[in-house]
Amino acid sequence: GSSFRDYVDAEGREGQHQWHVKVYRRTGEPCCNCGTPIERTRVSGRSTHFCPRCQR
Question: Which of 8, 22, 38, 43 is most buried per CB count within 10 Å?
């Protein structure tokens, strides 16, 4: 999974992973590619976010 807490590595550098996430925690917001609202569902007890149009 991805952590959105403040992350700093052993050398004091901030994490950059959160800038590559396109749909996580964006339920209802428009998809960056097509504008369709992002949906959230549960898979094996964990939540997942996706664009129903782009992700098939």
Answer: 38
| Confidence class for position 15, pLDDT limits 50, 70, 90 | confident
pLDDT confidence tier of residue 37, bands split at 50, 70 and 90: very high
Q: Which residue has the tokens 């609202």?
A: 37
3-state secondary structure of 20: helix
Rounded distance between C-alpha atoms, residue 38 and residue 12, angstroms: 34
Residue among 54, 28, 32 at smallest CA distance from 40: 28
Mean pLDDT of the chain: 84
Q: Which single residue is written with the structure tokens 């994490």? A: 15
Provide the 8-state DSSP code for 35.
-
